[in-house]
Structures are given as structure tokens and as C-alpha cells.
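Hi C.,

You asked whether I'd gotten around to modeling the 473-residue construct. I have! Everything is below, sequence then structure, no commentary in between.
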Amino acid sequence: MKILIAEDELLERKAMRKFLEDNFNELEEISEAANGREAIEQAAIFEPDIIFMDIKMPGINGLEAIEKIQNTLPSIKFILVSAYDSFDFAKQAMHYGVKEYILKPGKKTEIVASILRVKKELAYEAKEMAEKRSLIEERFISKLMQHQSFDKEGYHLLKEYFPTFQCGYFLVLQQGDPVDEADVRTKLDKHIEHPFIVNPADGRVTCCVLASSALNKSEILMQARKIQLEFGDCFLGLGYAYSTMESLSKSYHEALTAMYQLTRQHNRKYGFVEVTEEKDNRMDVIVQLLDEMEKGNEHESARCFTENRELFSPDDLEELYFNVKQLMEEHHLSLPDSSITELKSDESWQQFITLCCLTFQEYYQSNQLMEKVKDYIDEHYKDGITLEEMAEHVGLSPNYFSNVFKKAFGNTFVEYVTEKRMKEAKYLLMENDYSLKEICYMLGYHDPNYFSRVFKKHYSMSPKKYQQEIFKK
């Protein structure tokens, strides 16, 4: 437990420090601040668990300091100390969530009781946070293991819980005996210096390492050797390191395959997946199939799969599924509504491959269509065209056209057209051949005031102000 004492009276501050040191053995560190500004600075550096905050201090007072500290460090608990028994102070303190209030000179029993209550609150919050993080990590690693696409929630969790992520990989450890999660975490923590997530089940430990720096193969092997020795009689399969979250599913598949190989061969205890000649042949087939699929050739893709079906074991089919998924994600396309567990027959696989090819065909057709849309907008953006008119022109429903347009250009139709109009507006204002009202009508706007508001939103100044700035230069 770390404590900061913010008190402008030196003797009071030292007396409180001595009292805390004499009565609480578990204190890690105590720091001091002589005023509100120092308290804010010390809190940012020291990040204490508890702050004893005097209310009346020169410059920034205690309540103002609490407000500023809570903006950046909301988990810190405050115990207010004051010589004034004022309801107003207590009311303001309650507004900031402060529950402990000690009047000077504070009785020892009151101080001890306050700290114990705050400690209990901190312990409860820590337990809640640990449980919440455990559930989030479980959901996070499941997404990676099951080849699920990363959505906004996934990236938000990554940013919040693993903000320094640069590189990651999977390891899969197989033991004969049931595993204890706490024991597993303790053992892994001895040898993995980066953040990691663990999923132990049925005598197997799956671990995803999320490093803040690049990792090479030799580093991973050295780490694996130490882990294998730590666990004793086990097999440890390794996946290669990747720099994107989408690729980590591939690392999991590699680690799982490597673990299966190790248990069958029994000639080594840890390592990466071994690539055999047969594996090379399968990879050649997968590359050929993906090439045909990317071109949208459903007949060639289906033929390639059928003619080489005997090469694929269930594990190989899972790898094929992952490669198809990765290919489609590279083009920002969604897989057909078929999970790997639903692809149980050759017919279901052929249907899956055909649907993927059709998705690529639609993708290329949409791209060609969007090129026509772009040309049409370039010609008619000054005419005040609407999304509904544009959708009707290309024969699509407004809703579908809106989705396809945003996927192709990254902006909505309105944002795209408005951007073109605003760029043209800047050019016309620089030329200074037309009045603002004329420019407004030339760009398809019917209300000069609305035109001015749109321009100001884009460039943080009105058209008139922009023109004045141009001619000042």
C-alpha cells in the first residue's frame, strides 16, 4: 500500500508519517506534498493508493487538487483532513466520492479506522477488477483460437488491456495431469516477461503472449525450453510471432499442430511445427485454390479442392479455412455464414468455396460499379445530387448503395460529395471571380447561410474569413 500525505504544516505532515510507519507494516512507500500543486504532481509520479488531503492549503486547495487528480487517476482513495467542521466541505467532498473525513487533531483510532475502511474498499475493487479482466481475457483468447474476426470491441479491449502490443504468438502445452490455473500462471510468469493470457483446460494449457517489442524465433525457443523444464513431463508446441491481431489465429493453429506432432514423434519436447514434403504439396494446393478463389473462379476452385481432397486431414482443412478467412479479410470481405464446425462434408466445403468465389465476384463488380459512381459524381457533384438519386442511377436500393459506397470510399456518400464541394469552394474563393452567393449556387447549395455553416465546419472559418486570410498573404 502506497500513501501520499498532502499537508502544508510540516510538523503535522511528519507526525502523520511517523504514525503511519509505526502502525502499518504493509506500507510500501510514503510520500509528502506541502500544497495542492505538489499533491497533483506527486500523485502523477507516485500513483498512491490513498491520499491524506488537507483541505486548507495555499494556492490550489485540497478539494481542487482532488478534482484534478481524479481526472487522471480515478482509482485513488482520499481521506480528507481539516481543522474546520464545515458541512460545505463535507458536501463537496461527497461530490467527488470521498467518504472519509477526519477533523484535526485526528484521533489515532479514527485514522486507523479510516484506513481500514479504505483498504477494504480497495481490496473489493481489486477483486472485482481481477474477475472482470479474467472474463475479458477469456473472451479475447477465445476469439483468437476460434478464428473469429476482430470487431470494434476486440480492438477496444486490445487498446485498453494491452496498449503496448507490437507482436504476439501462441504456445500450447500438453500435460497428462489436470492443470491448476493459478499454478500455471505462476510458472509461466517466471519465464515470460511480456503480458500473456492463459486458457487451461483438459490437461492442456493454451497461452497467448502479447509482447511490446518484436520477437524472433530463437527468443521464443529459449523461452520455451525454460517453460518446458519448469512444467516437467509435457509437450510444448509453438506458433510463430506475428505483428497483427488477425494473424494470431494462425500462430494458434501452428502451436496446436506442433504440439500434436511432438506427442506423436516423442523425439523432442518443444518446438515449432515441422514442414514435410507432404505438407509442402498441400500448401501448393492451398495457394492454387486461393488464387482461383480470389479471381472469383468458382468452377476452378471447386475442381482444385475435389481433385486434391485426399491430401487434407481435419487439421489441414482447419488451416485451409483459416487461409480463406485471412484472404477475405485482406479485401475487407466477410466469410459466408459457415463456421469451421459446420463444414463436416465435402459437399459443405464445396458450397463454402463457391460462396466465397461469388463474394469475390460481387466485390469486383462493386468496385467497377463504384468507379462509374465516382465518374458520375465528378461530373454532377455541383448539381446537388442526392444519395437516392445516385442509387437509382446505378440500379441499387439506397440502403445497399450506401453500404457499398462507404466500404469502397471510406466515407458516406454525403461526406464524399461535401468534401468535393468544399475543395471546389476553396478554389473559387481563391480565384475571387464570383460572389459568395454565386459560389453557393454554383456548388448546388440553395441557402448561402447553410453553405457558410458547412464551409466553417470543414475549415474552422467562414468563407468570407477564409477569403480575407488568403488576400492578406
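If it helps when you're writing up: The CA atoms of residues 178 and 202 lie 6 Å apart.

Thanks,
B.
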